[in-house]
Design a protein that fits this description.
The protein has 477 residues and is of the alpha+beta class. It has 19 helices and 21 strands. Strand 19 (382-391) and strand 20 form a beta hairpin. The longest helix has 21 residues, at 450-470.
Length: 477
Amino acid sequence: MVSDTIQFILNNKIIKIKNPNPNKTILNYIRNNLKMMGTKEGCAEGGCGACTIVLGELNKNKIVYKAINACISFLPILNGKQLILVEDLNNGNKLHPVQEAMIKYHGSQCGFCTPGFTMSLFSMHKNNRSINNEVVDEALSGNLCRCTGYRPIIDAAKSLNNKNDQDQFKQKQNKTIKLLKRIKSIDIEINNSGKKFFAPKTITNLKKILNKYPDAKILSGGTDLSLEVTKFRKEIKTIISLNSVEKLNFIKKNKNLLEIGATTSLLEFQNFIKNYFLDFHDILKRYGSLQIRNVGTIAGNIATASPIGDTLPLLLTLDAKIVVQGKNQKKIFSLSEFFISYRKTKLKKGEFIYSIKIPINKDNIFKAYKISKRFDDDISSVCGSFSFLIKKNKITKAAIAYGGMSAIPKRASAIEKKLVNSEFTENSFSNAVDLINKDFSPLDDMRASSEYRLAVAKNLLLKAFYEIKNKQTIRIN
């Protein structure tokens, strides 16, 4: 069954929009159509959190609440979800506990950022009974404030610890679940003044649409694609969303191999990978913000081929492989051969990433670090990742990769060659680190100079050595 009408829940009513503009953001719909002005536009790139809204999604008969950036989310992604705005939080004349906390602890001055903070706190409150510093830091990592200062907002967040969430959303939960079930299973095909949007439910239908529209833009999280509209003022003629294809959203563990589906969110993967590669988890916690990780995917990070994509150096050192689905068959690429040049990969028209495979070798020692001007919600100046196999104090295998150092994320082959079969000593690393200039010639840009990047890349390799040698992780916050 195919429909040209998206359906979503707002205030416990089903809202239907026939052939919406696929390039229209949820933010513009909220402000221009719903005339709800609480949701603000600050940056139009998902970096400040002023536009934060919450989506309720059905997962195994339970509603999961996700804070997202409305400014970089296209309107059709609302299909099958519950939309919650800051205006919806109060229950009649009674404020929501989150709103009361912001008032009690003086969490607002000018007020521009306040609705976004409030929605992030609402999502945090709904998803966590126990609230500690780590939960608060993660929840607020994507919200910026210039005048209030974060201490009163953090105090407001902490006051919600173990506070009952029996609000109107909890009371009406069963009704909302019934409504979500009514609008869940349907393929979407939109045509608005020549702009098309497809959201198939099956891989078979996805392949048919890709075959017909090979030049279409593939959408998953959209945290990069949407900037073509919000920043470059372009029109995207055809968008194919992968998010409705349930068979692309999975995490599997088979013996010594992890496989992650193309539409699995970064947040879901972050929580899973902690059990296998702690440094990967820690890097992901600094990837954008919670709003970004709620929708962004590793497959999207790979497909955009950004030289500063934080997951890519890590996947390179872990010898990850990419499963690409074509019209008739699947192909498997090593990630190290997948990137061709700046923002270009071996992905051909009509193909899409099906999954990512990550080997687990418990004998290897894995380290990864991100250096950026701001700790949270910032782009890397340099991201370094290291994997070593050490036997009898000799390095038998070395995989070293960096992001932010070249046009593509790349392995440091000269350094690797120098280290393999060397003794695991300070002298070995001190000699090898000087080969960084053979592997990379980084550019100067607004984030860092070439000299700075080279110095940081060297220091990160030495940092990995000292941490492994001393069996101690050096945390710098």
